Amino acid sequence: MLHIYRQITALERFRPVVIAQKREEAERFPFEPVFLVGKPAMHFLRRFWFRTLRDAPWQISHREVMQIRRLLDENEAQLLHIYFGHIAVHLLPLILHWRKPTVVSFHGADVMVELDKPHYRAATREMLRAARLVLVRSESLARALVALGCPNEKIRLQRAGIPLDDIAFRERSWPNDGAWRLLQAGRLIEKKGFVTSLRAFAKFRGENPAATFTIAGEGPLQTELEKLARELGMQDGVRFAGFLSQKELRETFYESHIFLQPSALGADGNQEGVPNAILEAMASGLPVFATRHGGIPEAIEDGAGGVLVEERDHAALGAALLQWTRRPQELTRLAQAGAHVIAEKFEQKAQVRALEEIYREAISL
Q: Quick one: 125 and 221 in the same domain?
């Protein structure tokens, strides 16, 4: 994931070594060293035994523990950083066996999914006890972990870092002919709120027939969303752009007037931390219209750094779009305030320095 790659490659006072199950797109994300520990031959049986017969999260085998332990020892590792809480649950035997400090990062989707199952909940709590420190992207995630039983003194707020040198603020010129260009980017899944966006855009386009809405991303809901766009009579105004590279997405940011992100809690408990797409859009100078969900209100103050409505409320989102686009000068103020928030709270260099201090603390404890 791009935000993890940015974080790893920006470290200065620590030398990172990556251990993964597989590697993809190495040309786009150059980094060394990366050590691969693939799934064992009987992994599917082990997974079946844990998940189906025990209704518990699967955990790595002793053989895998020893493979990773050998790599840690050979590289004289002082600290293990596991990205995503549910991955840390799978790696619990390694955390318990290695004994040196482990920090675990939670990002949003990895907090509450499947925790209604007793064995999953128990394994997550055991992992939280074993970790030296626990990192969260938002205060809302911290509260969720405390409710789960994680001691508050273990939790550290470590926000996503946005490289402002690469994503410069540009002031937008607003259309006077109703040809507004709206954008949403992300994986096409329930929690991203694309259905809410499409219905809100239908309301907005009723008064702005020249407006267009670009959806950038891929995912399991694409067919459903394309069908909804047709049912709403907007197939000529909605463009499904598919996956965009970082360069292409950035260009699309600068070509757009408004960014949408009406995130909502998924049926499986999946929630957002603070979505990177929101942060990058704000940095670029796009006014963001989003929801009071997860960590989003920690980046956006309603009416100051962006606009917030309630989850799944497409009528309120459509009304907000109409209200604000009638006052373009206020949109300019909104965009400027949003970019200021990113520079103040999410700038990458400051966040990486904060991460290095967390590493130092974990090692010294």
A: no
Amino acid identity at 149? G
The domain tally of the chain equals 2
Return phi, psi of residue 247, to 5°.
-65, -45
Q: Residues 6 or more apart from 3 whose CB is under 8 A from it? A: 160, 161, 276
Q: Are 346 and 162 in contact (CB under 8 A)?
A: yes
Determine the Cα–Cα distance for residues 354 and 348; give it in Å rounded to an integer. Answer: 10
What is the per-residue pLDDT across 160-199, written as a single tens digit (0 to 9) for each?
A: 899 999 999 999 999 999 999 999 999 999 999 999 999 9
Any bridge partners for residue 136, and if so which? 106, 157
Q: What is the pTM of this model?
A: 0.86
In a domain? residue 61: yes
When comparing pLDDT for 92 and 274, which is higher? 92
Supply the CATH number for residue 81's domain: 3.40.50.2000
* Structure-token pair, residue 205: 């386009």
Whole domain around residue 307: which residue ranges?
181-345
Cis bond upstream, residue 33 (ω within 30): yes
The answer to whether 108 and 141 are in contact (CB under 8 A) is yes
351/299 same-domain check: no
Task: Give the CB-side neighbour count of residue 8, counting CA atoms within 13 A.
Answer: 19
